[in-house]
Structures are given as C-alpha cells and as structure tokens.
Design goal:
Elements: H1 2-18, E1 32-35, H2 37-40, H3 56-68, H4 71-74, E2 78-80, H5 106-116, E3 120-126, H6 142-152, E4 156-160, H7 166-183, E5 188-191, H8 193-196, H9 204-207, E6 213-215, H10 224-236, H11 238-241, E7 250-252, H12 265-277, E8 282-284, H13 293-299, H14 302-308, E9 317-321, E10 326-333, E11 337-344, E12 352-356, E13 369-373, E14 379-383, E15 389-393, E16 398-405
Parallel strand pairs: 1-2, 1-8, 2-3, 3-4, 4-5, 5-6, 6-7
Antiparallel strand pairs: 9-10, 10-11, 11-16, 12-15, 13-14, 13-16
Helix pairs in contact: 3-5, 6-7, 12-13, 12-14
Length: 407
Amino acid sequence: MWKAVVTAAVAFVLLFCRSSTLDNGLARTPPMGWLAWERFRCNVDCVDDPYNCISEELFMQMADRLAEDGWKELGYNYLNIDDCWMSMDRDEQGNLYANKTRFPNGIKKLADYVHSKGLKLGIYLDFGTHTCGGYPGSIKYLQKDAETIAGWGIDMLKMDGCYANVSDMSWGYPDMEMYMNKTGRPILFSCSWPAYAGGIKVDYSVLAKHCNAWRNYDDIQDSWDSVTHIIDWFGDNQDVLAPVAGPGHWNDPDMLIVGDYSLSYEESKAQMAMWAILAAPLFMSNDLRSISPEARSILMNKEVIRISQDSLGMQGRRVIKGDDKIEVWLREIEYASYGIAFLNRRTDGMPYNFTLTLQDLNFTYGKGYHLDDLFSGQPLGHFELNRNLTVSMAPNGVELIYAYPSE
C-alpha cells in the first residue's frame, strides 16, 4: 500500500512541476528582431545564388545591419535562423549539426559573432520526424537537442510542427520547454502547436504555461491578401485569443513583410500598425542590406513601436466592422491611454473619410483626450468625448492614433 501512496505522490509532484508556469523571465513585451523564412525561404543554392542562400554569411551580414543601422537600439535584437540550416543527417552520437558547406564555422561560432554585436541568436527545430524542409526532426531527441542548442548559446527557439501528430504536441512542446529550462540557459520558446491544431482548438491556458509565443494561423506570404486574411482571423477569433496574450506569452500572426516585394507604402503602414495593435511579435523578414528608406521609416517608427511594446501587454480588439469596409481596432495601453487603428479595406481609388466620436468607442474620461497621429507625427488636438473625429484613409491604408487623457 505504501508503495502505491508514494507512487501517487511522486506522480502528483511531477505533474505539478511539469504544469508550472513558464518562468524564464523572457518576452515581457512582444519580442522583436529579424527572421529569415518569408524572404529567404529554403534557398540552399550557395553556388549560383551566394548572396541570398541560407548560410553563415547571410546571418552575419544581417547581424551587422541590425547592429550598425539603428535597429538594435529600437528593440530589434533577435536574429533568427529558420529551416534548412542543418545537415541532412545527425552525427554518430545523434547530435544535430549545421551544414558544413554553408555554415563552415558551425552555429556556436555564429552565436558568438551575433552576441559580439549585442544581439541574440534564434534557431529553428521541428517537433516531428523531419522539419518542413525535410531535415532531421526532434521528436526522439528533445532533451539532446535542447542541450545542444543551449551549448551553442542559442537565445530563442522556434519549434515547428511538420511531420508530427497533433495529438503528440500536448506532451511534446511542454517536454521541450522542460528540457530547455533544465539547461539553465534562458531560451525564448516560440511554439507552432496551435497552427497545426486548427488555431483555436487548443487550451491556451496550458499553452501559455510552456511557450513565450505561438503561431496560430497560416504562414504569411508576400501579399496584401495574406496580411488581411491574418487580420480577419485574429478579429474573428479575438474573444479566444486576446485574453491569453500578455507579458511572457503572445499570439504570433507571423512575420512583418514590410520592405519585401508586394506591399504598397500604405499597406506596409497598415501591417505595422495592426501588428502593434495586436501586441504581436515584430519579426521582420526582409533584406536589411537593401531595404528602402520608406520601408525603413515605417519599421523604425518609434511611436508605433512604443504602442507595440506597451508594458500592459493587452492585445487589441476589433471594435467596429462596418458595412463601408472600415474597421476600428482598439488597444488599451498604460496610463489609461489607447492605440486606435482605423483600417480601410476599401479599394475604390481615393481616400475615404470616416467620422466618429470617442464616446462611440466607449471612452469615459470626462476631461477628454489628446490625440496624436503616429505616422505623420502630428498632434490632432484635444477632443471632448462628443467631439467629431474625422480620419482620412487611403485605400488599403490605416490611420494609427495615440489617445491619452487630457489634464
């Protein structure tokens, strides 16, 4: 009998310890940085395309740009490798190692270089039998891989879910978090579990105990349609998603594609604004070596970043979705203030004017609010609760406003 009691007690303790809240002290605000995937994909052709292939040289060059061009000072401090960095096989001891042609000095040397620039290095693994690109998966090697990346000095892990059973993810991702914590190295953990489980078909309260961020929905592509599909999905499911976001655990709508090929200037502003309202991780996937001044100005807008990085960590919500294809999104931020995004989904060739009052948004401070336009940098003035506010938005454009209580 006593053996059964002890066994039950041990099981309870293990269960309690395993389900304890993730406490690595990381991602107290949405993480920011650069991620290779959307822009550079799985390009491994370093013979014919050495400038764009997934290689040590590419990541060193991006580290230089983050460190030397002002990105790091704004908070973009993670440099993240995605798929296709590995050799196609593990070594004789079962360890992962980088492709020796494209990463001749190995990941540890690359991590040392990135750290010397005052940056952090992220890496990619897959929970399944293989990565999405066909490289070795981690399902039978979780502890070994956690120890390997910690030994290399990795600061963030994105764990994908290709070639895995969704039913196994409920133990697999928590196990990986446990093994990383055991290494003693703080590693920000980004999980893809919800994206493979249908987005809202997971227990987010459990997820938040084990992951600092998680992908919920489809991969972003280089198109405005892709951006708007993601925005729509987050709006349609906000009652599930918004309550679970907060310091240390964030919903991730995927990368910023500002500075790539498809988005117009107005669409680029719209993606940046909406990701800030959504309290989303801000991971650029672009070519920092040749980014345009216009794209740079959007991504480096300090006031928009301030909304993104607000310490309350509350995810914004869609509060108006009109028949006129105008949406209003609202994010509560510190000091009883708000970020307001007016998103124009119209494509009829001219700016559209939209009018409301702060009362329409359920603002209540009796003395009214000061409003600032965050992309123009211009103050809009003092607004009583019943004063009309008219904003003009370009097609597929946005107006992002900071509202704070008047004294």
